[in-house]
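SEVERITY: medium
COMPONENT: batch folding queue
REPORTER: lab tech (J.R.)

DESCRIPTION
The queue accepted two submissions in a row. Attaching both inputs and their returned structure tokens so the on-call engineer can compare them side by side.

ATTACHMENT 1
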Amino acid sequence: MSSLKSQMVWTKAKVSLALSLVTVFLGISLADLRVGFYSNTCPEAESIVRRVVSRASFSDPNLPAILLRLHFHDCFVEGCDGSILVDNGAFSEKFAFGHEGVRGFEIIEAVKAELEAACPGVVSCADIVALAARDSISLANGPAYEVPTGRRDGRVSNLSLAKDMPDVSDSIEILKDKFMQKGLHAKELVLLSAAHTIGTTACFFMTKRLYSFLPGGQPDPTINPVFLPELTTRCPQNGDVNTRIPMDRSSERLFDKQILHNIKDGFAVLQTDAGLYEDVATRRIVNSYVGLLNPLFGPSFESDFVKAIVKMGKIDVKTGSKGEIRRVCSTFN
């Protein structure tokens, strides 16, 4: 009897080991992100995030763009782990030049405070950032989608780690390479760049493009001649570099694909956006969404954008026993 019992235990152990090997071989993690991760541990988590973000957006109509940008910047350094939120001194990641102008930290802290009151130590700051970005897109009349959650917060935050952030002066080849390093391809580059359909940028980032792009102080020749006077009027040479202008010429607070039409027609504000039409691969992707390749049966911009941002939200996430759940987003436990 004892021998039979031992054999059964040994058989179960072998089966368990075999299943573990299969999951490793297939790249499957038992701690993968999933929709509804907090359904039992903090059922009101997503509604709390949505309520705080919606309330804050009434006083700051630019908030949707701010929180969407925060999500992108968080994910591109150390993965989507809330590292950009930490303030641990002068060398904090948030102070990196690549994060210049990133805001929204106080909104994430406000959400975190309400979540800690409802279910202490359960919801990660990294998940709050991802959920806040989702709700921001919805507030800007963009597509609604579900966010897989279960991220944990990272324990590292250092500005040196942000040195390879995509930059407004990057060539299209450099941009494609930086995105490829994160597992994102040309299609995701176009779609995530189209998030510039909402929000503004500072004239600081336009100076070179308008006044010293070519020798002799000439502007970027890809700027539509009709658009150039608009840009130079808004961002005059030697003017206030902190003045902000819309990144989407036609609908700065509406999440749509108008910015892709702008890029095609030479009305892109940022140099990196304009570069999307200078590369064969990304130009074809832009054209597919503006109806030039197949006007009747082209791809859905909204659907593909959702896939792209959900994919971005999985970059180098910490799950399971990795990382921590911060009690305050700006401070390690």
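ATTACHMENT 2
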Amino acid sequence: MESQREKEKEKDSERQEDTDSETDEREEERECQKLRDKKKEKRERAKERREKRRQQISLLRTIPYSDHQRWWSADTIALVTGANRGIGFEIVHQLAMHGLTVILTSRDVAVGEEAAKVLQEGGLNVLFHQLDIVDPSSIKVFTEWLQQNCGGVDILVNNAGVNFNHGPDNQLECAEQVIRTNYFGTKNIIQAMIPLMRPSSSGARIVNVSSRLGRINGRRNRIGDLTLRRQLEDVDSLSEELIDRTVTSFLEQVKDGSWTSGGWPQTYTDYSISKLAVNTYTRLMAKMLSDRPEGQKIYINCYCPGWVKTAMTGWAGHTSPEEGADTAVWLALLPDQVVTGKFFAERREVIF
């Protein structure tokens, strides 16, 4: 009899444990669902804010610059690299629509000439010249042509770049090409063009097309090495050697397979590092150019065009090339404020 009661107690205890376990599971599921709902709500709010901002910018693009804001004329020369398609093509289009003379460049002569022809047939003042930003001989030929035919340049938009990561798979087979093009290529053109930037009371302009993925202190995908991050963040001690050493170290780890434990971003890694270098170099150059006398000032900034629907993103973006080009054009033409060494997105400054 005693044994029977003990068995019944054990069964009751087991049933209670099962009930408690089911209750805990249901409570855990409710908490998980609440978390999912909060994340969904946050994403929806962010989407609404992006859409509202896009509408605002779309409206701003329809408002012409007034005569007193227009510091440029048809004699103002703007250069856009990698401009035969996508964001670069649209930057050329919008700058030309504002009445500037724009030089459209691309590696491939045939596609570049065709792109320029499309804009020329629309009555826009667009010139074409071949330019490969990683080829010293191409840069030399272009520089000589620019000096002889235009006498210099007023606006430089560094758009040329590559990206081989379109999805969740993180491919680093082309990391060296990505770094060489996006960072070293951009640096090549900046160094080649600075001596040719024409004096102006409004200042010459350099705009580097970059990415939020390259932010030093972004919440996601940032460098894990805190010491390195602080060194790159400190503009007073920042140097070209440090930036070069950072990307070189990354490429060395890619070659020996140790990059996954090196504290580098784990998604879109090579592209992120290349744009981190561009962003950091932009801040460095702003500091180096700040001592130029009035009339010879050069203002340099970088910006993120967003996830644009182009070949580079595998046509997976949610932003049009027209929207992606907008901030570059806005920075190139800023009429009433001096801004340099900053990072922008959707016409707003963003913390590096």
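NOTES FROM REPORTER
The two ends are 77 Å apart (CA to CA).
No errors were logged for either attachment.
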